[in-house]
Amino acid sequence: MRIEQLHFFPSRTLALYVARMFLTRTLAVLVMLVLIxxxxxxxxxxxxxxxxxxxxxxxxxxxxxLRVPQIVARFLPFSVLLGTIVTLATLNQNSEVVSMKxxxxxxxxxxxxxxxxxxxxxxxxxxxxxxVVTRANASLDQWQKVDYGTIPRExxxxxxxxxxxxxxxIQVGEVHVHGAQVILRQVRIFExxxxxxxxxxxxxxxxxxxxxxxxxxxxxxxxASGKVTDLGTFYAGKGVGPDRFTMANVDGDEFAFGPLSRxxxxxxxxxxxxxxxxxxLWHKISGPLSSMLMPLLGAVAAFGLARSGQLVLRAVIGMxxxxxxxxxxxxxxxxxxxxxxxxxxxxxxxxxxxxxxxEAVLVRTEE
Length: 367
Prior knowledge:
The chain is of the alpha+beta class. It folds into two domains: 3-149 and 278-365, no CATH class; 157-246, no CATH class. Helix content is 57%, strand content 18%. It has helices spanning 12-50, 57-93, 96-102, 107-145, 243-246, 257-269, 275-289, 293-297, 311-337, 343-365; strands spanning 157-165, 168-178, 181-193, 196-209, 212-222, 228-236. Helix 2 (57-93) runs antiparallel to helix 4, helix 2 (57-93) crosses helix 9 (311-337) and helix 7 (275-289) packs parallel to helix 10. The model is unreliable at 1-6 (pLDDT under 50). The chain crosses the membrane at residues 21-40, 71-89, 110-128, 311-328, 340-363. It is a multi-pass membrane protein. This is LPS export ABC transporter permease LptG.
């Protein structure tokens, strides 16, 4: 083994040259994708925005400001993949890869500048998602819920909240919070036995009382007999604290890593399902880090069948490997949301699988 092969970056000048070429092409591809996709998206949404009385150019620009970060975050890994293929295909076409290997560099050393640059891109993507994308997701989702109209001022009312009381289920239509006071309205208690519902209690109002709830104007409907009984005021929900109802529904795309982790802990304590949120939490790391996979998956554009001259075919193979990863990643997250895969497998399984595939292809064909 040559001495040069013991160093990850045998030439600082060469590493900077390759990394700069890779970053400029990745940025160019990203800008092109954002312009095209945003134009297509605006064609469908501009009519909805302008259909609201009073909306005009300012609202269109506001929509662009909220939508562009989402497109950037979603298609940055695609841009890294295409930037990798264009860079390696250019180096291969100009016989620069042959020169590097003739100088004693291994395939991993040729890819090293791209891997380091993609790691920087992954770090920037993580910070961008944490500081910009999550806020844009929350703002745009809130705006779309009112059909691009005027967003009402923040209220302390939450809607359609569920909680578990032993084998029973509690549904609350409205949760009103006034300082330390919590009032439940439109309360429905599904009384179950052996996981089968036997009766339903409906009440107009409930307030905390001791370690339970004071249910007012309640009526019970018995499923077996069909009889309705007026209960008046009674007490139920022992051990079900107000925090079970005051915690808002959590969307993983609208929370940064730290706040989402704390929200998951609170929801776990409240007895709510958190499998999908845990998968989203891990994917906040594995998603940006997927940029590091792209040079490895796109390496076939520079290596492999380098002497056959089939450059376009090698580029297509690299793209196919990259897009196969995105399909597997989306499939894994979907399975995690359904509870089929454990959260950590749903988020990291495709990443590790395609890392091994990329390494196997690279070692098999070149090393």
